[in-house]
Amino acid sequence: MRASLVRAVPGGRLIEIACDESGSDGENLTGGNTDVFAHASVHLPVEFAAHSLQEIRDRIRSPAEEYKANHLLREKHRTVLEWFLKPDGPLYGHAQVHLTEKPFFVVDRMVDLLVGDAGTTAVTLYREGRDAFDAEQWRDFLESSNNLLRVRNDGESDAPVNTFFRTVGALSRTYSGDDDGNGLGDILAALLAARSRADAYRARIVETPGVYPVLNPLLPAIVRTAAHWSGTGRPVSLVHDRQNMLTEERIAWLKETARLAGLRLVVARSDPRVQLADFLAGIARKIASDERGGRGDARLTTLLRPYVDHTSVWGDDRSWAVLGPATDGDRTMAPHL
């Protein structure tokens, strides 16, 4: 970084945070292109962010008009990627990333809806279920849970409910009489007893199509981002890359729920701070997904760790042990909305 630049945060009472995401598949969390959603936020002066982008261009020297995270993720640019995340890079101490493990998010939201007791119940179901059932059974369970919760439904209105309870019933019969004390059998029984809640939820979707989309991780990630940066007690305003999900109605909901002073949408390339957030989100999603899939790069995972929000929505204990902040203990879930 050029010596003439000073990485100082903007002064004044209001904090403006630049945000972007990576890995959005809407409500298709079990059959999309990615298994991780990442939402990054950056608190830097515009001038410093612009010079940081130029520094990245000078180091990579690609003729591309717009740089994306993939430029930094190429093996030939490994030194640039490491510099970007290291303490002497542009973001250290001034950026945060909230991770969502999509399959776990589906289980967490489904348990919250049907049992009203997410948290440890969702973690137990997710971790124990993956071991108790074969890959096909578990995949069918995740898909039926996803379809139960998603707003869009192209078939019969009660089809997602019927499929879900048929799937859970099959799992319960497979597991019946073989509960080793982990509580999985009791959780499956509680889900089977919650048919009325599932029917009521689907009815609300039909009656109110604009219902809050419980399966999209973007909104809770933004709420968590606001909470993170408001820790100083100063009001927070967000500038976010344009997203179809962020309608006027939902922006109003976010401003009220997250107590935001403002939230405005921009084209990412028009704000260098948002471009840096875009880089961090894409890089974090790739590193976290690789770690979750057993393909992790220990060096990159270690470099990402200081940026990871301790309330990221993550259920896989092995990968979280190396991704999550060292002072976090075993906390895996963000607060429910």
Main attributes of the structure:
alpha/beta, five-stranded mixed beta sheet, 14 helices
Q: Count structural domains.
A: 2
CATH architecture of the largest domain: 2-Layer Sandwich
- Secondary structure tally, helices: 14
Largest sheet: 5 strands, mixed
The CATH top-level class label of the largest domain: Alpha Beta
- The low-confidence parts are 328-337
Instruction: Compute the number of strand runs.
Output: 5
Topology pattern, helix = H, strand = E: EEHHHEHHHHHHHEHEHHH
End-to-end C-alpha gap? 40 Å
Report helical residue fraction. 40-55%
Label the overall shape: globular
Mean pLDDT equals: 89
Nearest-angstrom radius of gyration?
Answer: 21 Å
Q: Remind me, CATH topology of the largest domain?
A: Nucleotidyltransferase, domain 5
Structural write-up:
This is DUF3800 domain-containing protein. This protein is α/β, with parallel strands linked by helices and 337 residues long. The protein has two domains: 15-98 and 214-323, Nucleotidyltransferase, domain 5 (2-Layer Sandwich), CATH 3.30.420; 103-207, no CATH class. It contains 14 helices and five strands. Strands 3-2-1-4-5 form a five-stranded mixed sheet, with helices on both faces. Strand 4, helix 11 and strand 5 form a beta-alpha-beta unit. The chain is globular and about 60 Å long. Mean pLDDT is 89; it is low at 328-337.
